[in-house]
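Schema walkthrough. Field components (list of strings):
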Amino acid sequence: MTLPPEFALIARHFRPLAGPGALELSDDAAVMTPPPGRELVLAADAMVAGVHFLPDDPSETIGRKLLRTNLSDLASMGAAPLAYLLTASLPRDLPPDWLAGFSAGLAQDQAEFGISLLGGDTTSTPGPMSFSLTILGHVAPGQALRRVGAMPGQDIWVSGTIGDGTLGLAVLLGELPGEAGGHLATRYRLPRPRVALGQALVGLATAAMDVSDGLVQDLGHLCRASGCGAEIEAARVPLSAEAAALLAARPELLPRILTGGDDYELLFAAPPEAAAEITARAAASGVAATRIGRFLPGEAVVTVRDARGGAIPLGREGWSHF
Amino acid sequence: MTLPPEFALIARHFRPLAGPGALELSDDAAVMTPPPGRELVLAADAMVAGVHFLPDDPSETIGRKLLRTNLSDLASMGAAPLAYLLTASLPRDLPPDWLAGFSAGLAQDQAEFGISLLGGDTTSTPGPMSFSLTILGHVAPGQALRRVGAMPGQDIWVSGTIGDGTLGLAVLLGELPGEAGGHLATRYRLPRPRVALGQALVGLATAAMDVSDGLVQDLGHLCRASGCGAEIEAARVPLSAEAAALLAARPELLPRILTGGDDYELLFAAPPEAAAEITARAAASGVAATRIGRFLPGEAVVTVRDARGGAIPLGREGWSHF
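Field assembly_structure (string):
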């Protein structure tokens, strides 16, 4: 009895990614012993061609982007990564090499982040290719970082740099100058989830989330959860050299930088006295952390101030699918 | 600050489904304490409009079908359901009532199967709507039912009835006579995962899986995993009254019944001396179990025999996406 192509495809491209508990992807489900004495942290994200990535993005980066956006969710909760499940809905006429690149990219990230495939599903689709990934991580009981917990007077921190992802998308669409292989485009295609920093912030940050739909909108979510307001100083928002150069030439990009999506940096709150420790732990985690403002009493309003203290009008605050 | 429509949509239609650990869907991830002393069982399935369900299927049944196909995976492992994560990729022009029906259907099944929503993601898509669901269940350590374990001489069992789903699809497509609200069409839209039976078979069945891509093909998977062959007697395969009536009028439907997908029944192996106990436990679980053949020594070949013992040619053995 020969196997139909669907099963040959799974055996060739996905089975090599399977780790402990996956039963070589040959049973109906995975069986996993949860880490003793830990809470599980779980998140799921979907990605659709033309919405979350460009249809001509290299297949090597597409799976990695989805895995990394999910890792970023774990990072924001302070969790250590454990394993993931992946569903892929693919056109029937996919070029033969496409899946080889896709799975090779995932294998690379599995090694980098110490994680493996637990299970999933592969189906055909008459529409754009789409993926969904569920990630599992773990954290000490009661220690997960939440969006609730920021207090007026505490500092607003952000990791890494803001705006690279949205500017990288503009570069890839030809709306801004730049190389498809350059820093900004690479940041769009390959987010850098702050997994080590997230875990280092447990017990230190009072609230945290990841910035995925735009800094201002996401800060608003954190304010709503915590019941406070916030103001940030635009000049303090950390930018990459590439983003800073573009902004210097085109000051009108500022709202896009502050409200564009695809940053996948950590946004978190901490009391002022924790500043030195945060800076040290961030450095030990291999990424900078920058104070960009403070939480305020009152309504969940986010104000962005210019160098003279004036409020900067932004138009929209971030990305919405609907 | 007003929330963009995406967040209002989640709050209205998905937050009411959120259960323990979901943090009201307002954090980046869910946090769950795994059941102490149990292994976790995890599965993920995707569904695409036009592939796994009909675009004009009622929205009340679409989410339930996906949840039930995942519950069927848990059932096949002998696991008790715990919680699920859902990603939904939806057209921007979805009618307002569509999601209300979708979530109402899920709420109904959450109550029926004692399960709740843990997290997920909602995105837009320019293509057909698609969904992915990851389900979590639990089982006593080392007790999960697997596809490996069937032995030559053991009986082949199947729960419920075979062929209703594929015949129901044909009815809905107008290829066979029948009502859209009738038994067969309902079986296509709403599988009946054998969750209670699966758990009752732990320690009794030697191997198990669910039939989702056609009885003959799926039995072949079980044979390959267990390293044996199988023969089934077509006349013993349990049919609903509706399927039996169609088959009597159109004997050429037999291959479709034996190889069509969407059964979501349990297929399992057990030694002959367990027969009485299996029949009793199945009855206690509210579903019939039927012996349809036996496992044989040798290669993983599945033979379907007619009443005179001759092999019935089937053409394809089951569904493949590629």
